[in-house]
Amino acid sequence: MPLFDYSLLLTGQYHDMLVAGLLLSLQLLAASLVLALPIALVVALLRLSPLAPLRWLGFAYVESIRNIPLLAHMLFWYFGAPELLPEGIKQWLYEGHIEAYSAIIALALYTAAFMAEDIRSGIRAIPAVQFEAGRALGFGFMGTMRRVVLPQALRVTVPPLISQTLSLWKNTSIATVIGVAELMYQAGQVESATFRSFESFAFASAAYLTVSLAITGLATWYHHRFPVRTI
Question: What is 7-225's CATH topology?
Answer without folding.
Answer: MetI-like fold (1.10.3720)
